[in-house]
């Protein structure tokens, strides 16, 4: 076994961020829809805007999602292909 844990740090951080039901739902929804804005996510998840913003901030900080401004809206999408593969694997039996 390789005892150099540095190589595992980034992957562990991504797993920690994804280990929350709301964030997992956000990421899965963004993948399925090819991205969307905060208003749509808030409507679908039925959570306060402030709560959603906190979750999106954690996902952005981990490099899992990115937001692009479109006028007054910010459209989010998953920007980490490893996360896309992981989510597809996690939910493969649900289809």
From TrEMBL:
List, alphabetically, the NCBIfam families matched.
Answer: HTH_metalloreg
Q: What is the protein name stated in its UniProt record?
A: Metalloregulator ArsR/SmtB family transcription factor
* HTH arsR-type domain boundaries: 3-95
Q: Which UniProt keywords apply?
A: DNA-binding, Transcription, Transcription regulation
What is the native source organism of this protein? Acetobacterium fimetarium
Indicate yes or no for the key word DNA-binding. yes
Q: Which domain of life is it from?
A: Bacteria
InterPro entries in UniProt: ArsR-like_HTH (IPR011991), HTH_ArsR_DNA-bd_dom (IPR001845), Metal_resp_trans_reg (IPR051011), WH-like_DNA-bd_sf (IPR036388), WH_DNA-bd_sf (IPR036390)
Against Pfam families, the record matches this protein to:
HTH_20
């Amino acid at each position: 076994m390789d005892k150099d844990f540095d190589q595992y740090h980034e992957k562990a951080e991504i797993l920690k961020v994804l280990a929350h039901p709301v964030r997992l739902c956000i990421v899965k929804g963004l993948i399925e829809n090819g991205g969307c804005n905060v208003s749509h996510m808030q409507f679908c998840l039925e959570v306060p805007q402030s709560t959603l913003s906190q979750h999106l901030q954690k996902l952005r900080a981990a490099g899992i999602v990115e937001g692009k401004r479109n006028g007054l809206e910010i459209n989010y999408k998953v920007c980490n292909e490893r996360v896309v593969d992981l989510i597809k694997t996690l939910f493969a039996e649900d289809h």
